[in-house]
Amino acid sequence: MENTPDSIYFKDLESRFIKVSKGTLRKFKVSSEEELIGKTDFDFFDNKHATEARDDELEVIKTGKAFDNKVEKEVWPDGRVTWVSTSKVPLKDNEGNIIGTFGITRDITSYKEAEEKIKSYVKELELNKALIEEKAKELGNVNSKLINSEKKLKKMNANKDKFFSIISHDLRSPFSSLLGLSDFLKYELGDMDKEEIQQYISTLNKSAHGIYKLLDNLLHWSSLQTGRLEYKPEELNLRELILNILQLYNSKAFEKEITLTIEIAVDSIAYADNNMIDTVVRNLLNNSIKFTETGGEITITTKKTDDEIIVSISDNGVGINKKDITKLFRIEEHFTNLGTANESGTGLGLILCKEFIEKNGGKIWVESKEGKGTTFFFSLPKA
User: Fold this and answer.
1) Model confidence over 157-197: pLDDT tens digits?
2) What does the alpha-carbon distance between residue 242 and residue 237 come to, in Å, rounded to a whole number?
3) CATH superfamily assigned to domain 230-383
4) What's the rounded Cα separation, in Å, for the pair 70 and 77?
5) Across residues 291-296, what is the average pLDDT?
6) Are 99 and 90 in contact (CB under 8 A)?
7) Where are the domains of the chain?
8) Distance set, CA 206 to CA 213, 258, 344, 348 (Å)
9) Is the pLDDT of residue 137 over 60?
10) Phi, psi (5° rounding) for residue 248?
11) What is the pLDDT of the chain when averaged over all its residues?
12) How far apart are the first and last CA of the chain?
């Protein structure tokens, strides 16, 4: 008892010290046992700790049950704080009667401070972890934006390359043909009969129409890319729109003896921009006529779902092979073929169709079998 560094003490039924160890004298910073005998914790600690200590001792006296290693916070008059681990047991006389309490208190202040530091470090680590996660999230967002920016730049470059490709090749070629024919007529007209003149004029007319169609698509496409094309959605009667377009293409279909059939309900009302959808249908119908053999058939139908209308333009023409299907609707792929009557194209029409349909909240896709025919589908929101 005298040699242990722990504080060992005996108290009476009133929680007054009746015997203490040297470790207790060192703890209370007194030189003799007499300075503690007869005193209680209320003489040395704040009221809260002294009350808790006395209540614990009264509980031990009342129940006769001991308790081990209870962690307590001690606040001294000078404001100093210490932490202890306390064990208390009933103190009995030779007859077994409880006459007080016997206690052992071990100072664990250094352990408690270390524990608090560890908790502080853990809290700091958790805070740093949260900050790192937040920064990682921010970096992820920045990275995502950079990836999107890179995609946009690639698309813009592809658009630019496509534009210059069309200007330098596809637009120059029909103009060269047009200029060549006009020069020929200029110098040879006097030596030609009426039938030959009519034939050349017809060729000139076709060439001019082809150039106009290319320029029209180019203007629409460039306006869309630069944000200058107005988007004006409205209730759009698809049957009326398609019937009007068929009037424009009847003569072209008649030349190739192609049968045009529509199966569209009168109440096929979409919510879309009239000019954009007009351009889409004209491009798709022109493609179908171009790639359908003489005597073929083209059918235009609509199908309604709960919230959209699906338009299909189907032909029994030459079809598209699987490899070429993947090139459709892609600006970076310069894909164009001659039609069954050697009709030329720019490869821009389907790209324009995709841009317009997506601008109107729909989708466009194709199904085709080589030698069997092709069906283009596009969806639009119902009015």
Assistant:
1) 776 666 666 555 556 656 776 787 788 788 777 778 888 88
2) 9
3) Histidine kinase-like ATPase, C-terminal domain (3.30.565.10)
4) 22
5) 90
6) no
7) 7-107, 110-159, 171-229, 230-383
8) 11, 18, 11, 19
9) yes
10) -75, -30
11) 85
12) 95
- Detail the DSSP E strand segments found in the chain: 7-12, 17-20, 67-75, 81-92, 98-107, 233-237, 259-263, 269-273, 297-304, 308-315, 364-369, 373-381
Tokens of 348: 């821009």
**pTM for the full model?**
0.50
Taking the CB of residue 235, how many other CB atoms lie within 10 A of it? 11
123 phi and psi angles, rounded to 5 deg: -60, -40
Q: Which residue has tokens 């200058």?
A: 228
Report how far apart, in Å, the C-alpha atoms of 329 and of each of 273, 324, 332 are. 20, 11, 9
* AA identity, residue 355: E
| Burial class (CB within 10 angstroms; exposed 0-12, middle 13-18, buried 19+) of 273 | buried
Burial of residue 168, with CB atoms counted within 10 A of its CB: 0-12 exposed, 13-18 middle, 19 or more buried: exposed
Say which amino acid occupies 194.
K
Q: Which CATH architecture has domain 7-107?
A: 2-Layer Sandwich (3.30)
Residue 10 contacts residue 27 (beta carbons within 8 Å): no
Tell me the mean pLDDT in the region 283-299: 90
Q: Is 32 helix (H, G, I), strand (E, B) or coil?
A: coil
Tokens representing 342 are 């050697």
Q: Return the pLDDT at 210.
A: 65
- The CA distance from 169 to 344, in Å, is 13
Token code pair at residue 171? 């637009």
- Transcribe 296-348 into DSSP letters: -EEEEEEEE-SSEEEEEEEE-SS---HHHHTTTT-TTS------TT-----S-
Residue 162 makes CB contacts below 8 A (sequence gap 6+) with: 331, 332, 334, 348, 351
